[in-house]
Structures are given as structure tokens and as C-alpha cells.
Design a protein that fits this description.
With about 240 residues, this protein is mostly helical. The protein is about 70% helix and about 0% strand.
């Protein structure tokens, strides 16, 4: 459990107390004084350390739980979440629901971001990661008729590809956009030909990476996003 005392915090203004408590805790997360998995002190200790009331602390903690920054574990105790995109985007997905009005905007964004990732990865990918992606293709070839297995492998394929850029901001943005489209990707994966097309796209991407050709890698990624966009729209059309 992280230890905190009054010296860790400056006195808090009395206006919007709960909001300022939340901001103080977020600052501790940003500066890594609180890390993923750390347990927060009990409400009474936080209230004493921050010189505020327990109801204000309780309200702030509840808000940070809604945002996915904090989690309550079975048996009690409030902990900092993993801070992964899946945790932080959970609440956002309740507000940003993929629909016919914004699906074009999502994939417009993915073409821009993932196209850039392809270009950068072609310049920076390590031989080890390239070998790993080639091995993934061998696995994916046998999963074209297994939607669940292919989706699991697809997540890893795109993760290794974005990690190859060495840019954590691009990784986070790409992962976030990927997650927002996940609901309809599950449906699309059941349609004949969709996984076969994704596999062919992946082959072209890896071939461009292997050739260290940034232009070809970017074009392959943009084409992949175009195909994913089309199959997603088709899945949305058949969803009741």
C-alpha cells in the first residue's frame, strides 16, 4: 500500500473540493508516485492527508473509478488500474458508440494513424519483431475459419506492429481506435471472406516491412484499414 502523509499534498481550495482531490490523485498517477496496481490508503487517511472531508474524497474516488483510473478489488481496497487503453476506454465507449454517423470518421482516423505506423515500423522494426510477425502469419493461415482465434492473433499482430515504432503515444492512440471498432469487428469476422481478406492484407504489410519499404508499408496499412472499414459497415448493416 502506498504511504501518504500531509506533506504529500498542499491544502486544497474549498471550491469544487472533490474535483480538486481527483486532480491531485491524477497528478500522482501522472508523475508515477502512484503506479498501476498500487493500493490507495483508506478514505479516512486520504481525507486527513488532503485536509478535506471524507465525503469529498469518496466522491473523487467514485469519479476516478468511473473513468477507469481506479478499481475496487474483491475483498475491499481501491487500487490504481492497469491504465491500459482497455481500462480507460471502457467508459468512453459508453459515450462514443460506433454508428453509421461516425464509423467513417473512425476509419478516416485509423487510415491516418495506422498508415503512419506502417511507414515508421518499416524504418524501425527489429529483426526479432519481424520474425515474430512472419510466424504470426503462419498461425493466422490456419485460423481463417476460426473467428475467435483469428481475432486474438489480430490483436497481437497490430500490437507488435505499433510497438515497432518505438513511439508510446502512437501505440496508445492506435490501440484506442482499435478498441472502439471492436464490437462490430466481432460481427464482421463471422462473414465469409472477411478473415481471408485480413490475412492477405497482413501478408502485404509484412512483405513491405521485410523489404524495409516505408511507402509500401503505409499503402498496405491504408488498404487494410479500407478493407476493415468496408467489412465493418457491412456488419453494421446486417445488425438488428
Amino acid at each position: 500500500m502506498a504511504e501518504m502523509g500531509a506533506g504529500d499534498f498542499e491544502p486544497i481550495e474549498r471550491s469544487s473540493v472533490a474535483e480538486q482531490v481527483a486532480k491531485k490523485l491524477l497528478d500522482l498517477v501522472r508523475t508515477k508516485n502512484l503506479r498501476p496496481g498500487d493500493q490507495l490508503p483508506p478514505e479516512r487517511e486520504l481525507a486527513a492527508a488532503m485536509q478535506v472531508s471524507r465525503p469529498s474524497v469518496r466522491e473523487a474516488l467514485r469519479g476516478l473509478q468511473i473513468l477507469g483510473v481506479l478499481k475496487v478489488r474483491q475483498g475491499g481496497g481501491i487500487y490504481v488500474s492497469s491504465l491500459e487503453a482497455s481500462d480507460l476506454l471502457g467508459p468512453l465507449q459508453l459515450l462514443i458508440t460506433l454508428n453509421e454517423h461516425n464509423v467513417n470518421a473512425l476509419y478516416e482516423s485509423r487510415k491516418l494513424i495506422d498508415g503512419g505506423i506502417g511507414r515508421m515500423a518499416a524504418e524501425r522494426i527489429t529483426p526479432e519483431d519481424l520474425t515474430r510477425m512472419k510466424n504470426m502469419l503462419l498461425v493466422q493461415r490456419g485460423l481463417i475459419n476460426d473467428p475467435i482465434g483469428f481475432r486474438v492473433s489480430d490483436v497481437e499482430f497490430h500490437r507488435v506492429l505499433s510497438d515497432a515504432t518505438g513511439n508510446p503515444f502512437l501505440v496508445r492512440v492506435s490501440t484506442s481506435l482499435y478498441i472502439l471498432g471492436m464490437e462490430y469487428r466481432r460481427i464482421a469476422a463471422e462473414n465469409p471472406g472477411v478473415l481471408g481478406q485480413s490475412f492477405q492484407d497482413h501478408e502485404r504489410i509484412v512483405a513491405a516491412l521485410d523489404a524495409r519499404d516505408p511507402d509500401a508499408a503505409e499503402a498496405a496499412m491504408v488498404q487494410h484499414m479500407t478493407n476493415v472499414h468496408l467489412s465493418t459497415v457491412n456488419a453494421m448493416d446486417i445488425t438488428p
